[in-house]
Amino acid sequence: MSALPLQGKTALITGSTQGLGLASAKQFAAAGCRIIDNGFRGGEYVGADLRNPAQIEAMVKAAGPIDILVNNAVVRHTAPIERFAPENWDESISVNLSAAFHTIRLALPAMRSRGWGRIINVSSIYGQRGAANRVGYVTTKTALIGLTRTVALEVVGTGVTCNAVCPGTTETPVHEATIEALMKNEGLSHAEAERKFLAGKQPTGRIIAANDVAQLIVFLCGPASGDINGSVFPIDAGWSAG
After folding, report:
1. What residues does 35 pair with on adjacent strands?
2. Handedness of CA 75, 81, 86, 90 (dihedral sign)
3. Residue 188 domain boundaries
4. Cα–Cα distance between 159 and 114 in angstroms, integer?
5. Which one is predicted more confidently, 44 or 140?
6. 166 and 193 share a domain?
7. 45 is catalytic
8. pLDDT, averaged across the chain
């Protein structure tokens, strides 16, 4: 097998300025991909606002033919449903779900014409189970699984595949800030704060490494993945097994 199994492929990764998106971009680059990063940091990132379909279309067109599409961008809002702001609901639908619909519909024709393509939708443990006060996140992550399965059936036999990954609580700046606050406020070690943060959820009591999830995503786009289509992969340290 080539040391660069995805040499010459172009990968578009939405929401790739930090966390899992950034880890995925690094792993795809290491596998030989040309990377199109998306986010609001400027510089090398394509700053398309994923709430805006016209900007999504411009981003996909500017990228040229896309071989690998990773729909990772996400917003999170928390509140009981009766206090969940309508504008936060609309943003959740736009960024977490509709953006994936738009990127797929725009990138898929070129994938079909070349007879090869990989689409990965980043869902969540919360795409497989509910959680109070997270109606926007749970609804959109669940819907991404339905989108994945539908697209997978539509691309059977074309050389294109569509799969979803469902991480548990994975290292991100947001989660790290919560852990650091617990350490400061309660005098806990990092490991103790992790266990408290994850109590009743992730059985290991440890945050999942973003690089581990990224490596799974890259595998699903690699040479051995051609017959993996329409699958949903939990990577949650046993959380969904309970």
Report:
1. 11
2. positive
3. 172-207
4. 8
5. 140
6. no
7. no
8. 96
